[in-house]
Amino acid sequence: MSELGRLALLLGFACSVFAVGSIAWGLRTGLSGPLRSGRRAVWAVCGLALLAVILLERALLARDMSYRYVAEHTSKDLPLHYAFTSLWAGQEGSLLLWLLILSAYGSAFLFAYRKRLDPFYDAVAMVVASVMIFFTGLLSFVCSPFRILATPPADGMGLNPLLQDPGMMIHPPILYTGYVGFIIPFGFAIAVLLLNRSGTRWIEEVRRWTLFCWGFLGVGILLGARWAYIELGWGGYWGWDPVENASLMPWLVGTGFLHSVMIEQRRGMLKTWNIVLIVLTFELSIFGTFLTRSGVLTSVHSFAESNIGPWFLGFILLSATIATALILYRKALLESENRMDAIVSREGSFLFNNVLFVALTFATFLGTTFPVLSEAVTGTKISVSAPFFNRVNVPIALALLLLTGAGPVLSWKRATASVLQRNFILPLFMGTLATLIALPFGATGVYPLVCIFAAAFVTTTIVMEFARGIQARKGLEAGALPAQVTQLVRKNKRRYGGYIVHAGMVILFVGVLGSSVFQKEAHAPLKTGDVLRVGPYTLTMRGVTERQKENAVYTTAILDVKHGNRFIATEHPSKALYTKSQQPMTEVALHTTPAEDLYMILGGVNEDGSASIQAYINPLVSFVWVGGLVMVFGTLIAVSDKMRLRREEKEAP
Amino acid sequence: MSRLAIRMAWLIAVSLAAAPASAKPRDPVHEITSQIICPCSCGEVLSGCTCETGKSMQATVENGIRAGKNKKAIVDGLVAQYGEVIRGAPKAQGFNLIVWIAPFAATLAGFAIAFFVLRRWVRRRAALTGVSRGAPSDRTIPFPTGRALESELDALRQRAEEEVRELKQKR
User: Fold this and answer.
1) Nearest by CB to B103, which of A377, A392, A476?
2) A177-212: per-residue pLDDT in tens?
3) Phi/psi at A377 (5° precision)
4) What is the ipTM of this complex?
5) Set of chain B residues whose Cβ sits within 8 Å of the Cβ of A472
6) Could A381 and B50 be called an inter-chain contact, meaning their C-beta atoms sit closer than 8 Å?
7) What is the model's pTM?
8) Count of C-beta atoms within a 10 Å radius of residue A150
9) Residue from B22, B61, B141, B154 to probe the interface with A (highest A Cβ count within 10 Å)
10) In terms of CB atoms within 10 Å, which end of chain B has fewer, N or C?
11) Which residues of A354-365 are buried (b: 16+ CB within 10 A; e: fewer)?
């Protein structure tokens, strides 16, 4: 079976090469035959990648230890569902999943535009196929998941306990769907440059694809944060870990693009800039995979040992060089009549917003990669972690939040003094009011106060925008307020979907503010009957138990939790010791209310029989998840805009 | 210009680096442990670390504070033992100054570029329409503003919907 897997990947490589060659030939000669063949080859790669995935899954589920990948990432006592998800536990499997999603995007793209005769779409497919060459090549010749061991071990090394979590079952595929999806906007951008196409039609199409994968990447990031919160047991959900940063960077640039693309659509401006943002988003999504998979961040030395790091770096350099060369070569195509009526306008605010998004990405990029750079230059190992990012990225992010409120209430072209007065006085007043109200509650730092001001400011502008929309449609829609809001959103899904995303962002920021600034913590070794107090909560230790469950031994503390004098629950923070790897894992106990989370960790059992308990009160954490969900909801509304148009097109005679 | 931008970035970087994210007083142990990274493979910030190395380092910090040592002495002691790698944010000196200054310098430079580009575009537009710079807004050519355009669109939508309704009634 392993031979079949290897053959599938080799054929996939051949089909990818064929697809690129055939489409290139078709584009050059204008013949439809080669274009058709090329399209079919892209479909074939998808089928072959699926076959390879099925074969590897079969080996994983059967725990066929003759496969090196299976032996390295599973064990016989591993529950079946985790054996299934161990496909993306290691480098080779992850790359195979990448290939599957990539080829699925290629096929979905071809299916979506199957009725278009324009060879432009073939050119996009050719770009997708070029990236497929890289991944099929890597999987065939550099790191095959179908390598066979000469002497299979009796049992495997087991799955990393960190990955044995329900969140990890869906987080990577969703994140990858986001990451990989940026190939389509990239394909569009390269195809436009290759074929020297003018016009803005592609911009609308690319916006929807970008919105789709941007949404998935956002959900992936959110799931990752939730996983870190529950599984890593350090009391937080975002640690500015390189892997987290890697996923954030393309999301940030993608967000910048989703804003600046509106200027191109409306005013035909910023053509070059938008293409640069698309290319950057794609390169950063590849870079993210490179960061997570090459080992470069551990040390410069481990990068040299990694067998795929140099390949990835080469691919990034090559694709970025080609894209840059094309942008320079097609300079004339990208020239636009850049004229503005005023700096203080929606366009102006979008440009400044883009600067902040790119600056935030740059700060994240620099901070993430700086330890390697510093070690190479100074020879000393340093860390650039959460304490750095909290100081550098937070102010830039807060400036962005402020602009989130200002941008939408500035008129396109020119915001006159009267518009500024009409649109800004109330939000500024509400922002100031909220800041003053927050002061007695202990919010005294610079950042918390700016965040509270910005949150109230943005919320007011959003509410004002909705109110104005309803006012403008007065007489058209009767009924209660919710019905009017629904009608308003349905009439302009892009615009109001965007506002809902902004509202979600505000909720998320409030959650981040609450949980980081107002977090309370207490820790102590507790014996049976001992008490630990944190805020209004009292935790009474009732004892410690130990039991074997599936592939780990769980040591569990039993804690009675009271809020004031009221008993609320018995909680069970645990420590799992995985039998195979002997790796300890923290199983957090969480008592969630809309206002705050009581987060309990068992640090371990001491020699005197006491258990080390660490308890946090994380206020407003639920706002982070709710804010994220609201953002997803807004994205869905914005994406559905074109779907409605399409349906109407079909219904039209 | 660029020198000014770098100086401003340096000022912002230094003041932000000095500014606490929250002025809410935390306990001194947390002030130290939230800035230190556990040197073992877990890589966690010390305040949330539950591994053995982390716990022993937390104990060192707690004992130091109890003994009345100042924060700098405690951190320097830990750095001497485990290396610079345990600082969550590198010291703003020497080569590492780059990582502190560059983000703010880039942001300021970005803003400056955006401002000058926008100003050039506005001038180009003004030259084309014959409107002199600094002319009062009511004397510019009346391009519909975003809001005017929206209300026009809404009026048009309303008219279209009424016409459709009428047509349906006639049928």
Assistant:
1) A392
2) 999 999 999 999 999 998 888 777 788 889 889 999
3) -85, -50
4) 0.83
5) 150-151, 154
6) no
7) 0.86
8) 6
9) B22
10) C
11) bbbbbbbbbbbb
